[in-house]
């Protein structure tokens, strides 16, 4: 059930009416509705994996209570390890089992040996990476004494399966969402109207930009060896935009839907294409994932390696970003992607500028030539590494690089559908311009300050016109569904 599908529109309309008009006087009934709706939403994809989601919730619910009740450090560690092994074990099996097997087979083949190991026909459950990280952070926060366990099973199960975020994030921490589930919610018109604007902006980015970019990038990456380098460069640029518009569009819709229900969830993107360095980019891109790895992977590693000075910090960064790469999928391309981004941090560590933000990242960036050069250089690095992210395998990535850095870079690129491509480029220009103008806001369509209803209405109808006019015939899934 895609957010962009008619089925979801019907589902959410009925849900919204029940939530605010039938059950608004009862917190318990509202939470039960959230839980029921979340399970229906998840089962719509594949009802078989609903049992995995429910089982995960049951186990971690009781583990959390057990962690809080026990005074024995050994027993508490035992309970924590049960949760970690179950969560990470499920993730490794469903997401990485065949990858490990194929890697072993490939390693044996290098020495002309045959490994008689069979892969399995495993289907990846949607959202498993996202809800697994929710349960892990829940247990770790209880273990550290930062939060108390949830005793209301409806609240806890709703936190794990909350339908706006269960499939593709953002990854809300327990402190963010659970307290909101535990207290009465009141309909706020201003919050709901801004949520609607954020949904509209997300729809624009997903349907008009990401899906139309996909129609151009997919054939370019599939037949890269037949195209000139200029066309490949154009495709890499479009894929970088596509990935952002697709994922941030989903996040905008998820945040907007949550706001319609009275929730404020984690912001996932902060206009990352205006970053002036790779560290600045990762402070703005997939914020909920980056902060999760920072708290639970990088910080413990940097403490463990603290005696090794800057070398220890570099090692912690490399492991952290390699893990972020692996999180994205079972492919060496993601591992290399993560490792390279870790390497981009090394000059900042050596110079002592890792945690220093460049001046002018927001208000004054447009007045500084140096800031513009930094942003352009960062974007080029992103393009070149997102090409690896997009490639089917490392061999394809190397072939793409080889073709990209050839003399055919000076050829004119080929456009198969000129009108559609021009419209997509116009939409990209609209998106980037709006986000630049609104870079101090939570999202680009936060235009309460715009005076005059006719002006706001013109903006809304313009976006709706784009969505209706340039919606691709083929429905394209959100990219991060496979992660």
Question: What are the main properties of this structure?
Answer:
single chain, 483 residues, mainly alpha, 18 helices, globular
Tell me the structural class: mainly alpha
- What value does the average pLDDT take? 90
Order of helices and strands: HHHHHHHHHHHHHHHHHH
Q: What is the radius of gyration computed over CA atoms, rounded to a whole number of angstroms?
A: 23 Å
Name the helicity range: 55-70%
Explain what the structure shows:
With 483 residues, the chain is mainly α. It folds into two domains: 181 residues, no CATH class; 211 residues, no CATH class. The protein is 67% helix and 0% strand. It contains 18 helices and no strands. α1 packs antiparallel against α2. It is globular.
């Amino acid at each position: 059930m895609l957010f962009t599908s008619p089925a979801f529109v019907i589902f959410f309309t009925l849900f919204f009416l029940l939530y605010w008009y039938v059950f608004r006087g009862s917190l318990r009934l509202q939470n039960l509705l959230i839980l029921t709706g979340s399970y229906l939403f998840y089962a719509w994809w594949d009802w078989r994996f609903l049992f995995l989601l429910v089982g995960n919730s049951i186990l971690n619910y009781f583990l959390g209570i057990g962690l809080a009740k026990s005074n024995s450090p050994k027993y508490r560690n035992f309970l924590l390890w049960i949760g970690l092994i179950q969560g990470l074990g499920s993730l490794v099996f469903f997401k990485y089992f065949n990858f490990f097997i194929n890697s072993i087979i490939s390693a044996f083949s290098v020495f002309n040996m045959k490994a008689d190991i069979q892969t399995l026909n495993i289907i990846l459950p949607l959202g498993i990476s996202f809800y697994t990280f929710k349960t892990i952070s829940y247990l770790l926060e209880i273990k550290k004494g930062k939060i108390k366990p949830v005793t209301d099973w409806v609240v806890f199960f709703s936190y794990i399966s909350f339908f706006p975020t269960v499939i593709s994030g953002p990854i809300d921490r327990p402190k963010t969402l659970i307290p909101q589930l535990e207290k009465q919610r009141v309909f706020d018109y201003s919050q709901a109207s801004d949520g609607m604007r954020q949904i509209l902006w997300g729809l624009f980015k997903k349907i008009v930009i990401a899906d139309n970019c996909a129609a151009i990038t997919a054939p370019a990456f599939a037949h890269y060896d037949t195209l000139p380098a200029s066309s490949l460069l154009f495709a890499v640029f479009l894929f970088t935009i596509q990935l952002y518009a697709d994922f941030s569009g989903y996040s905008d819709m998820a945040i907007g839907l949550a706001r319609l229900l009275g929730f404020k969830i984690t912001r996932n993107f902060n206009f990352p294409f205006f970053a002036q360095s790779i560290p600045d980019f990762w402070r703005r891109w997939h914020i909920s994932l980056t902060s999760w790895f920072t708290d639970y992977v990088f910080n413990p590693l940097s403490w463990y390696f603290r005696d090794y000075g800057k070398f220890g910090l570099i090692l912690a960064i490399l492991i952290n970003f390699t893990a972020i790469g692996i999180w994205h999928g079972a492919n060496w391309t993601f591992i290399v992607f993560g490792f390279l981004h870790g390497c981009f941090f090394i000059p900042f560590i050596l110079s002592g500028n890792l945690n220093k933000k460049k001046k002018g990242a927001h208000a004054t960036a447009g007045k500084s030539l140096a800031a513009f050069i930094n942003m352009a250089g960062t974007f080029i690095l992103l393009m070149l590494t997102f090409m690896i992210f997009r490639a089917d395998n490392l061999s394809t990535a190397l072939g793409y690089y080889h073709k990209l850095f050839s003399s055919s870079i000076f050829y004119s690129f080929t456009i198969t559908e000129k009108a559609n491509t021009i419209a997509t480029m116009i939409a990209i220009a609209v998106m980037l311009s709006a986000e630049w103008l609104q870079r101090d806001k939570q999202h680009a369509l936060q235009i309460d300050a715009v005076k005059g209803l006719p002006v706001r209405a013109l903006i809304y109808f313009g976006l709706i016109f784009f969505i209706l006019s340039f919606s691709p015939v083929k429905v394209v899934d959100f990219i991060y569904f496979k992660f």
